[in-house]
Amino acid sequence: MLVDDQPLLRHSLAMIINNEAGLRVVAEAGDGADAVAQARAARPDVILMDVRMPHLDGLQATRRICADPSLAAARVLVLSMFELDEYVYEALHAGASGFLLKDARPAELIEAIRRTHRGESLFAPSILTRLVAHYVAAPRPDRPTAALRRLTGREVEVLTLIGGGLSNDEIATALSISVKTVKSHITHLMAKLAARDRAQLVITAFDAGLVRPRS
Fold this sequence. Notes:
- It contains eleven helices and six strands.
- It is an alpha/beta fold.
């Protein structure tokens, strides 16, 4: 589903997306309020969400969509012209799975949609760099949270590597296990930590102090 208050941009994005195998635009909305209604009606797998819109902005719309149990399968990818930090942090805590800039190339957009659908978190490189810096600079807890105490040693290792931005294949190589086993660990992590998707696992890894600055 495409959510943007500019009809021309929606039309351009729809042309790019509908030209790709396995992808189809099932709904469009021009503001946040309509986005929530359209999402409930169309049940899209991935929602490309603009930030600045009339009536209800994209961040508030994302929060309502991600809080709706009937839309638990939907993944929101915020698409914006702006790199403002407060947008990134608020989008993450609203439940967005990623944040991509509107100057991304068509191939990058398509790959972002596919990765978001697979449950991976995605951020433009410039945004990810600042996001990591923000959490590295934040105060760390003195000891693991109660939720982390329920994890096995291997699950903590996987969570740490997720926080470091590694893909499933890279985690499998680092730990000398199969990709299938990695996916199983991630499923268990999401259940134990009540995480909606991989993006929330990244936040948990940073908040718990599992990811440290590189020297």
